[in-house]
């Protein structure tokens, strides 16, 4: 019985890993190339910055599904942020916006 529980748990973890890898690959193909590494995000006040965004994992933020609650280094406030597609980032950079990186992990 104990071996069955650990196999079931291992199977669940493997399925979750496959799901997150597949979801990341799909979203990267849809124009979110930063997912899985430094990703451009926008806070609710409209500030654009880069942060580490790994689907299913959160170190510097509280995950809220597709969104996260974390510190915005541009406005110096806490806010809900969401990842931005490459088109938004390219448009911002074409208008002279420089993306700020959030705080690095120690």
Indicate the structural class: alpha+beta
Shape: elongated
Estimated share of beta-strand residues? 25-35%
In spatial order, strands of the major sheet run: 3-4-5-1-2-6
The N- to C-terminal Cα distance equals: 42 Å
**Count of extended strands:** 6
Uncertain runs are none
Helix percent reads: 25-40%
Mean of residue pLDDT?
A: 86
**What radius of gyration results from the CA coordinates?**
17 Å
Sequence of secondary-structure elements: HEEEEEHE
Condensed summary:
With 106 residues, the protein is α+β, with helices and mostly antiparallel strands.
What does it look like?
The chain has 106 residues and is α+β, with helices and mostly antiparallel strands. The protein has one domain. It is 35% helix and 29% strand. It contains 2 helices and 6 strands; from the N terminus they run αβββββαβ. The protein has helices spanning 2-29, 86-94; strands at residues 37-43, 48-53, 62-64, 67-72, 77-83, 100-101. A 6-stranded mixed β-sheet has the order 3-4-5-1-2-6, with no helix packed on it. A hairpin with a 4-residue loop joins β4 and β5 (77-83). The radius of gyration is 17 Å and the shape is elongated. The model has no long low-confidence stretch (mean pLDDT 86).
